[in-house]
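Please fill in the sequence for the structure shown.

STRUCTURE ENCODING:
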């Protein structure tokens, strides 16, 4: 009888250890599977993403109607348009700083056009850049924009 209880106790302990190890192994495998799938997804996203390393920057100036000189257009709206064979679509915009400078970061590969608007003393000024091609590689493109008054 004592021998039987010992064997049963040994079997019970053995079953408990097996069960614990199996549960631990299952949890560990699930964790490893989740990590592996996550890493695979991250790798896939990194491979498929466009590079956003290009920058387009410059200065926005206006030609004053009073003196005919160029001055910084402080607070001018500079909009970036994507240019394709079918159409031109506004993508984003920035505001020029106190020196008239603007900066567009994280520009993808493509054809772009910049258009700027600014108002001073109830006079609307507009201007645009020439077409800009970016490769998406690490490049800094400088385009100054000259605004002229517009009659509405």
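FILLED IN BY: designer on duty
SEQUENCE:
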């Amino acid at each position: 009888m004592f021998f039987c209880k010992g064997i049963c106790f040994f079997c019970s302990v053995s079953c408990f250890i097996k069960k614990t190890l199996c549960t631990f192994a299952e949890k560990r495998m699930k964790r490893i599977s989740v990590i592996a799938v996550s890493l695979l997804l991250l790798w896939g996203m990194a491979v498929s993403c466009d590079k956003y390393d290009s920058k387009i920057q410059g200065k926005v100036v206006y030609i004053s109607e009073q003196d005919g000189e160029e001055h910084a257009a402080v607070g001018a709206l500079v909009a970036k348009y994507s240019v394709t064979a079918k159409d031109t679509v506004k993508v984003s915009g920035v505001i020029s700083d106190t020196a008239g400078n603007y900066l567009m970061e994280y520009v993808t590969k493509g054809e772009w056009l910049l258009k700027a608007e600014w108002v001073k003393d109830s006079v609307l000024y507009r201007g645009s850049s020439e077409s800009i091609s970016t490769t998406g590689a690490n490049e800094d493109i400088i385009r100054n924009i000259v605004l002229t008054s517009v009659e509405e």
